[in-house]
Amino acid sequence: KAMLLLKKKRYQEQLLDKTENQISNLERMVQDIEFTQIEMKVIEGLKIGNECLNKMHQVMSIEEVERIMGETQDAVEYQRQIDEILAGSLTEEDEDAILEELNAITQEQMELPEVPSEPLPEKIPEASPVKNRPKPEPVAAS
């Protein structure tokens, strides 16, 4: 009878080990499935991102981007030149040219109109009618 009980005990221990291995395998399979689902979501996100990039590439070509960058560079250069002029960073040649132009302008004979010699008539301000507007009456807030 003891031998039979030991065999039964041994069989149940083996059955328990097999069950634990199966549970472990199932847990591993569940983890693998969850990881695969996450991978699928990542791949789906990459696919959507790639489609968006392709649409953006269709809208903007390399030539258009280069043209915009060139225009921006030209505008930056133009603004830099304006900044230099405003900051007084003119070369001596520029300053000499400006002085010559100023002298030429001031030495020109300008014809101005003659100023009248008789006194101007005095203007009497007219009384303008004042419009009376009714003031809005305050309304109590409820």
Notes on the protein architecture:
Keywords: Coiled coil, Endosome, Membrane, Protein transport, Transport. InterPro entries: Snf7_fam. By secondary structure, the chain is an all-alpha fold. Among the domains are: 7-60; 61-99. The protein is 70% helix and 0% strand. It has helices spanning 2-59, 62-86, 92-107.
Topology:
Blueprint: H1 2-59, H2 62-86, H3 92-107
Quickly list its features:
142 residues; mainly alpha; 3 helices; 0% strand
Mean pLDDT: 84
Strand element count: 0
Terminal residue distance: 97 Å
The ordered H/E elements are HHH
What is the general shape? elongated
Structural class, by secondary structure, is: mainly alpha
Low-confidence stretches: none
Short structural summary:
By secondary structure, the chain is mainly alpha-helical. The protein contains 3 helices and no strands.
